[in-house]
Amino acid sequence: MFDVTLFGAFVGGLIVFFSPCVLPIVPFYLSYMAGASMSEITAEGGLAPGVRRRAFLASIMFSLGIVTVFVLLGAAAYGLSQSFRSYQTEFRFVSATIVLIMGLHFLGVFRIGFLNRAFQVDAGDTQNMSVLGAYVVGFAFAAGWTPCVGGVLTAVVFTASTESTAFEGLILLLVFGAAMTLPFVMASLFIGPFLKFASKFRRHLPKVEKAMGVLMIVFALLIATDTINYIAQWMLTTFPAFQNI
């Protein structure tokens, strides 16, 4: 049966990837993972032998590093929520407040300086990037996530913490992580076309930021009013086709 929380986690992951905090740095990470310079991966014509293969393998390990952190956060949040079940209401309002503040930030109602921070790594010697190294970089990226990741992730982690079982919460974080990193893996297979798409898509980044702000405010209200399940029931009633998904 269709699960609105899984759908929301999947959409949230995709939005995060195409957000102003993540999409612009993807070309740099592709070159870093592939062990090639930006001029090599942006040059017209074919890529040097082995570049695409290195980029693909490294992007998978990079993605696994990110997902690992998300799953650990979800597990920690679930354990914390179970330990303080009598404070579920307070926990819900705190989470809703955090998501709401970040949503207002992205809408431009006000700006919080430290939320504009973006995680970067020292390029160093990219030729020596190993598979394990890509995993570590992904882990570090998620641990020092950009504010775009943090805002949506807060909502997803809270939802995971309120699932009936730890396994359901784990699946929710896996879906979010997979949705966020799958485009990165696909981009490593089609580096040339992706770079052209990214350059054209840049002009739409402010719109994505605003849309993210609106979605986070809506989600904050759903968290605060504890009505996520009601939304799921409404969607199943209004769109019966979802029952077959």
Secondary structure elements and their pairing?
Blueprint: H1 4-17, H2 26-34, H3 38-42, H4 51-83, H5 88-107, H6 131-143, H7 147-161, H8 166-189, H9 191-201, H10 205-225, H11 228-238
Helix pairs in contact: 1-7, 1-8, 2-4, 4-6, 4-7, 4-8, 5-7, 5-10, 7-8, 7-10, 8-9
Shape: globular
Largest sheet: none
Order of helices and strands: HHHHHHHHHHH
Mean pLDDT comes to 76
| Distance N to C terminus | 6 Å
Helical element count?
Answer: 11
Key terms:
globular, mainly alpha, 0% strand, 11 helices, 245 residues
What does this 3D model show about the protein?
- With about 240 residues, the chain is mainly alpha-helical.
- The protein has one domain.
- It is built from 11 helices and no strands.
- The chain has helices at about 5-15, 25-35, 40, 50-85, 90-105, 130-145, 145-160, 165-190, 190-200, 205-225, 230-240.
- The longest helix is centred in the N-terminal third of the chain and has 33 residues, at about 50-85.
- The protein is globular, with a radius of gyration of 19 Å.
- The protein starts with a helix and ends in a 7-residue tail after the last helix.
